[in-house]
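Entry for the shared binder. Reason: the reviewer on the internal report wants the predicted structure included alongside the sequence.
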Amino acid sequence: MGGHGATGHYAVVYLRITAIGLPSALVALAGQGYLRGISNLRTPLLIVVAGNVLNLVLELVLVYALDLGIRGSAWGTAAAQTAMGAAFVVRLIVAASGEWHLHAGRLAPSAARRLAHLHPCWPPPSRSARWRSRPTSCGGGSSACGSRSSR
């Protein structure tokens, strides 16, 4: 099973280059799933269509205009996957922060705090013997992590 000769060589070249874009493609799939899960169907559609149009344009330029062949096709695909992943990350940051604030090219501290809100007990109380002796989960409507006023 598998390609032999020139076909096998082209397959290996294409897969090795496009593997660079796979983490971004997985981020794009996760972002698409999240946005669809919260009933935002338009944004993922727009990002995916824009990414595929970008892929088409890059394929035409890299393969035909620059005559890069299979390598150009693979680089175009990897670049489009990376662009889609980045677009989903930006959209999810905006959704998590509620607004887009930049300070010196970085996300504002308030937005970063909202992104870090991964657990009902975040941020944890100060590291004290009282904290270490408490249960690690917050469930059942009671706060096992302590109230904000106790910090």
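Summary line for the report: Residues 69-97 form the longest helix (29 residues).
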